[in-house]
């Protein structure tokens, strides 16, 4: 499975023709073609180009919503001198 860095995820924000990717539970999903993610935004609450694992825990739908989108790859944490994960 392709490894996706946080910087790569951030770049896929759905703006100016870029793809719209979201991170969830260690995987990166492509939501570009979804009508639910117009211009990289879902319900004006969630933005593409981010790891939404924590945010989606409070969403009214379960993980099956996210897991229905194509998987781009595995989100890898960036090492920052002891801090292994950025949110």
UniProtKB/TrEMBL annotation:
Q: Which Pfam families does the protein's record reference?
A: Cyt-b5
Q: Which InterPro entries match?
A: Cyt_B5-like_heme/steroid-bd (IPR001199), Cyt_B5-like_heme/steroid_sf (IPR036400)
Task: Classify the source by domain of life.
Answer: Bacteria
Q: Which residues form the Cytochrome b5 heme-binding domain?
A: 4-76
Tell me the first and last residues of the signal peptide: none
Protein name, as recorded: Cytochrome b5 heme-binding domain-containing protein
Q: What is the organism of origin for this protein?
A: Bipolaricaulis sibiricus
